[in-house]
Amino acid sequence: xxxxxxxxxxxxxxxxxxxxxxxxxxxxxxxxxxxxxxxxxxxxxxxxxxxxxxxxxxxxxxxxxxxxxxxxxxxxxxxxxxxxxxxxxxxxxxxxxxxxxxxxxxxxxxxxxxxxxxxxxxxxxxxxxxxxxxxxxxxxxxxxxxxxxxxxxxxxxxxxxxxxxxxxxxxxxxxxxxxxxxxxxxxxxxxxxxxxxxxxxxxxxxxxxxxxxxxxxxxxxxxxxxxxxxxxxxxxxxxxxxxxxxxxxxxxxxxxxxxxxxxxxxxxxxxxxxxxxxxxxxxxxx
Amino acid sequence: xxxxxxxxxxxxxxxxxxxxxxxxxxxxxxxxxxxxxxxxxxxxxxxxxxxxxxxxxxxxxxxxxxxxxxxxxxxxxxxxxxxxxxxxxxxxxxxxxxxxxxxxxxxxxxxxxxxxxxxxxxxxxxxxxxxxxxxxxxxxxxxxxxxxxxxxxxxxxxxxxxxxxxxxxxxxxxxxxxxxxxxxxxxxxxxxxxxxxxxxxxxxxxxxxxxxxxxxxxxxxxxxxxxxxxxxxxxxxxxxxxxxxxxxxxxxxxxxxxxxxxxxxxxxxxxxxxxxxxxxxxxxxxxxxxxxxxxxxxxxxxxxxxxxxxxxxxxxxxxxxxxxxxxxxxxxxxxxxxxxxxxxxxxxxxxxxxx
Lengths: 286, 355
Fold this sequence. Notes:
The complex is a heterodimer. By secondary structure, chain A is an all-alpha fold. Chain A has a single domain, classed as MetI-like (MetI-like fold), CATH 1.10.3720.10. Chain A has 13 helices and no strands. In chain A, helix 11 packs antiparallel against helix 12. Chain A starts with 20 loop residues before the first helix and ends with a helix. In chain A, 34% of the residues are buried. By secondary structure, chain B is an alpha+beta fold. Chain B folds into two domains: 227 residues, P-loop containing nucleotide triphosphate hydrolases (Rossmann fold); 115 residues, CATH 2.40.50.140. Chain B has a six-stranded mixed β-sheet with strand order 6-7-8-3-9-10, sandwiched between helices. In chain B, strands 11-15-21-14-13-12 form a six-stranded mixed β-sheet. A five-stranded antiparallel β-sheet of chain B has the order 16-20-17-18-19, with no helix packed on it. The chains are: A mainly alpha, B alpha+beta. At the A-B interface, helix 8 and helix 9 of A face helix 2 and helix 4 of B.
């Protein structure tokens, strides 16, 4: 322990950049530079100008992919929130030992290989899959439901993958809420719904927003699950970029699509910084 | 005894095999300020939380104005409560915190604005409506909590050690405020505290809790001058408990013979000695007086004198080696006179025998 005196000289000031240089160089050469190169190609190929961007928005196929992407990301975020909130709340109020088990399950699902999980969904959701067989056997449906190779399949698969990213930050803010505040609200005359609407939702909003933004942004650029569960007719942005560049070798158009994705992501990140950073720390606290 | 407004009868609460409250019955008239006083774990908070509706009784009934409230959930009991912890809604400014109970009841905007204004003036926080709870001191937060609890004009206000997080000076300030607000609103208050001074300062009556039971209910003066049990005698005010060799009972009075043979006649006697097996004689430090000459009273030696301004405290040792305290006016206890063997006496009617 050092006491705070005026003439104290710090033996080591943590301002040196030296050790960060390798990682920074790595990022600069293999991330920033390629992104800039791609951006450059998007406005120079085949000639200088914004024609690639114009084409993306004007061509109905491409515009449809953009629309699909935002639609799926929005729907996935919404369902993740709706399904994640009760789980986060349960984790916040259940006894610690049980909560740890549920956490382990959530984390295990996150750590399990993404491809394996997505293929598992293909098996479950297909026409002759377990889910359709069960639905038919119980007589709920007479024809197998089209659950895969469409946006339904993409949404189901992605909600499942995104749930932990909503539950974890939401749980952190819910846990910070003093139960005595909820008791106070009850004695003030608020029933369950009123407490949820007027106290729990506003107090957990920072966590919900952080989780929702993360899920939305991740969903926008998601490649594996939409490609496998969506089929060719329901392409999303990341899949389209891959196809433009790998199959069609259209670097200009691919670059433009990639740049749109990057811009939206950065805009959302800026939004989060502006409105939600720091708020998560004060919610529910004294 | 006036009519009971809030009635607790045969209340018992167990958590698994642990008995939190054995058996509590109380009749509380409208407008009374009743304090539950007792050490932690004595069942006072459990009883309060049962009135609030957060804990269901294992047995017994709680009724307001003759109607049992047990089947009513907390949010429909229309009871106000101020908690030990700060429970203002952190996302709402002061005005909206006070408005909260009115909003959930669907009051009109005009009515809400009027009530919030009146409540802020009641707790003397005019001009604070736009501040967030985090911008207030602890004392201000508890005053807002009080305003919020009174905004819907509840017939009963519960207070669970609301001042325990505050420092002594602030606590006394807010005690005065609470007393004034009680007089202005006439609300029936149940107040929980472990601080006897706070209980004496605020209450009309005090119920002393110990081991899940009420030891005695009465005004502060009653409890101090006429303690029914040894626990109450020891909990309210300072007291000496002298060992007693022999007791002769005659109805409600008794004679006691102390270990050194001193005989004290006509002492009020009580059966409530709690768990102690041997009888004890309680006498307050300020009841003791030095007597001139030898032979009269109890022989003592002075061990220490503490000057406390208005009073002095003298630590004495009896002939059988027990330490007792005497308190007297600073000038009455002259240090230089306190040497050699001395005698103390007291009015037997001011002492109590617990056997």
